[in-house]
TrEMBL record:
This is HTH-type transcriptional regulator GltC. Pfam families: HTH_1 (PF00126), LysR_substrate (PF03466). The lineage of its organism: Bacteria, Pseudomonadati, Pseudomonadota, Betaproteobacteria, Burkholderiales. Residues 8-65 form the HTH lysR-type domain. Keywords: DNA-binding, Transcription, Transcription regulation. Belongs to the LysR transcriptional regulatory family.
Amino acid sequence: MENLIRKLDLISLRLFVAVCQEKNIARAAEREFITPSAVSRRVAEIEALVGLPLIQRHARGISVTPAGDAVRRSALAIASNIEVLSAELSQFYSGAKGKVRVVANLSSIVQFLPEDIAAFGRLFPDVDIELEEQSSAEAVRAMAERAADFGICNAVCGIEQFESLPYRTDRLFVMLPKHHRLAEASHLRLAELLAENFVGLQRESALMQLLERESAALGGALNTRIRVHSLDAQCRMVHVGLGITIVPQHVGELYVDTLDVVLRPLVEPWASRQLFLISYGREQLSATAATLANFLIQRERPD
């Protein structure tokens, strides 16, 4: 009996169930589109493995022995489990079930991804999303090491090696203490800010690289007095009067009602930034990852 699991096959069990249900080998063969002799041989092979008669053959059909009935019940249970497995696997193939690893920069996580992932989760509750915050440069490195299914980042060095699809656009605004001398301005330009104490993110962030590059193009440099790791800390430093900063619009809007700050548009052609979803090509993504990627790039955020 210890060889039973290794030697029994699903086709033989299915044919045996058909014989039990039809009470006739010929009718079972017709139902399963196979010859009666092949069905009879399969049943005989199961009987040889079990070591007991499973059916009794009569002139007009068969009857099932108690041992045969036990095999029939187990075969039906196995078939049911296979159907459940098939249905579950079809969800993986269709993208409705599985796990997706995403690396995304801070701007996308703070502004857009929470709502987008929540909306996706309502449609696909069986998909697990592992989201890791990285800078844009780190997201590119993680993708190069295949540490994630896809990434979301700004246009930084190295992005050209991936397929890049537009995800969202964010606009940069200047955040100032409410009583700052520039707080009454309707809009601001970078050149007006170079002499101000500036609160920035770490140097490798895409935002800081952009600001430092554009400052240099103006022949100056940001007077960065404080560097922090999060947008929240950046805004709180402005709140207590330690400097001014530049943040994505939707980030700043989270704080204008709770902190002693104001937001003013940064009027520069580069102040509108594109966020990209990067991958090695959607054809290389799993069905589940492709489902999430397609969902994200098709969503629009109203202004």
